[in-house]
Design brief:
37% strand, alpha+beta, binds zinc ion, elongated
Amino acid sequence: MDCQHEETKVVESRKKEDGRVCRRRVCEICGHRFSTVEIPVEEYLKFCEFKKNLPTD
Ligand SMILES: [Zn+2]
C-alpha cells in the first residue's frame, strides 16, 4: 500500500519511447518505494492540441 507522505525524492528517472517519464521515488519519511509515470507538460500540451484539432461530429 502506498504511504501518504508528500516528502518524496526521485531516485531514478527514465524516459519511455512514447515521451512519458518513469520515475522511481522513495519516501523520505518512511522509505517506501514506488514508481510514477508522468507526462511532461510539453507532451501533454501537444496531446491537447492534437485532440482539439480532431473533427467532431
Ligand atoms: Zn512515507
